[in-house]
Amino acid sequence: MITELLSRRLRRVREFEEGTCLTLFTKPDYEWGEEGPSEEAQKVLNEVYQAIEQHIPEEEKQQQYKEKITNMFQDCLASKKKYISVAHFLSNALEIYFHVPLELPYKIVIDKRFYLEPVLFALNRTTHYIVVVLSDKNTRFFEGVNETLIEYQPRNAPKAFKDVVSEFDLKQILNPPDIPMSEEDRKMMERSIAIQLEGVLIKFLKKLDDSLCRILEREPLRMVVVGTEQQIRHYKEITRMRDRIAAFVMGLYEYAPAEEVAEFVLPVLQDALRAEEQMVHYELESADMAGMLEKDPEKIWQLLQEEKVQRLFLNKEATLTAEVSDEQFSINGKGTFLATDWLALKASEQGCFFHWLPASVLEPYGTIAAAIPKTE
C-alpha cells in the first residue's frame, strides 16, 4: 500500500542521515530525452548544483553529489510515473527517490539532516482510505488519497469467484443440463443454483475479508465497500473489520473508471467521517470522565512504544516540536518535526487509529494529544 510504503521509506531515510544530506522535492512531469534534459529539467539541476557549491566546500565531494543527483533525477524521469510529487534524498550513505501521491512544494535543502517535514506533514494530514468494489468477476481495490483513487491488487486477495472455487465447479453451477422439465422442476433448479452461488459468494467474501484484515492490521485506514444489496448484506454478516468500515455503498462499478468511482464514493465517505468526528467528542469526554484518558504526550509515546494505545487524538493546529529517540520523547526539544507528527508516525507504524482534531476540541483537556490506552 502506498501510505504504508511511504511510512516505511521515511523510516529508512531517517536511518541514513549521515554527513551532508540533500533533499529535493520536484514534480515528475519534466522531460529527459535522448538529447538530454529539457530546459525546465536543466534549470532544476542548475539550482541544485548551485546549492551544492554553496554548502559543500570540497570540490571532489561537490562533483560526487552533482553526479549522483543528476543520475537520480534522470532515472526518475525515465520511469515516467505520474504521481503528484517526487522526493529525492542523497547523503553519504543513501541515494533514493520515490514518487509521492501528495502535493509537496518545490524545495532544495542541504543540511545535516534530511528535510522530511513536508512529506510527513502531507502524509499525516491527508485523508487516506481504501475502497473495495465487490464483484463475482472483477473485484477491485483502490487506495484513496484525498480525491484521488489509485487502483492496486493486494497480494493473495481474491478477485473473482474462480479464486475460491474451480472453474469446472463454477461452470457446473452456472450451466446445468438443458433437459426438458416441468415449470416446478425448473423453479427448483433455479433456487438450487441461487443457493449454490450464494454459498460461493460467502466463501469468496470470507477469503476477501481475511486479506483485508491483514492489510488493515498494518495500517489504520477507513474502508468504503461498494457492491450489490446481496453482496453487502452478506459482507456485513461475516466481516471482522466492521469498525474499520466507514460506509457501505450500493452500486455496480466493477469496470468503471477510477474517477467515476471516486465521484460516487467521496461524498458518502465525507458524510461518514463527519459523523465519526461527532462520535470522537463523546469518546473523549467518556474516557476522561472514567479516568481512562492519557493526556501527557511523553507517556503517550511510551504507550505507543509498547503498542498499548487503542485510539490517539491529535491537535492538527499544534506547533510544538519534539526531540525523539526510541526511548525518549521531549516536547520543545530541537527536533525538526512537530510533536504531533512524531506521535502520528509512531501510531501509523503500530497500526493504531489516530484522529486529527481542531484545537478547540483538545484545548479543554489542556493537551495537544490524548490517548485511550488498551484495556487488558
Write the layout of secondary structure elements.
Blueprint: H1 2-15, E1 21-26, E2 32-33, E3 36-37, H2 39-55, H3 59-78, E4 85-90, E5 95-100, E6 107-111, H4 117-125, E7 128-133, E8 140-145, E9 148-152, H5 167-174, H6 183-218, E10 222-227, H7 229-238, E11 245-250, H8 258-289, H9 297-305, E12 309-315, E13 322-324, E14 329-331, H10 339-349, E15 353-357, H11 359-362, E16 369-373
Parallel strand pairs: 7-10, 10-11, 12-15
Antiparallel strand pairs: 1-4, 1-6, 2-3, 4-5, 7-8, 8-9, 12-16, 13-14
Helix pairs in contact: 2-3, 6-7, 9-10
Structure description:
This protein has 376 residues and is α+β, with helices and mostly antiparallel strands. It has helices spanning 2-15, 39-55, 59-78, 117-125, 167-174, 183-218, 229-238, 258-289, 297-305, 339-349, 359-362; strands at 21-26, 32-33, 36-37, 85-90, 95-100, 107-111, 128-133, 140-145, 148-152, 222-227, 245-250, 309-315, 322-324, 329-331, 353-357, 369-373. It has a five-stranded mixed beta sheet with strand order 9-8-7-10-11. A hairpin with a 2-residue loop joins strand 8 and strand 9. Helix 9 (297-305) packs parallel to helix 10 (339-349).
